[in-house]
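Q: Structure tokens for this one, please.
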Amino acid sequence: MGRPISRYDWVLFAKSDSPIQLASIEDARQYRIGGYKGDAKPQFLLDRGIEVQAALRDAENVRKLDKG
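A: Here is the predicted structure, written as tokens:
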């Protein structure tokens, strides 16, 4: 089997004063997660039964994060 063409690290963001620490993706299950509608990252989480609030623009997720 060949090597991948590229590799991307995916991240989850929290407010800077948040005490949230994740050791695995399963730890994220208890939090509200925003994602970009139609993107592979939210679909990856959905496929694992992790709820994602989809937005049409990344700016919407930033506003949601700011509001808590």
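A few notes: Residues 31-67 form one domain. The mean pLDDT is 90.
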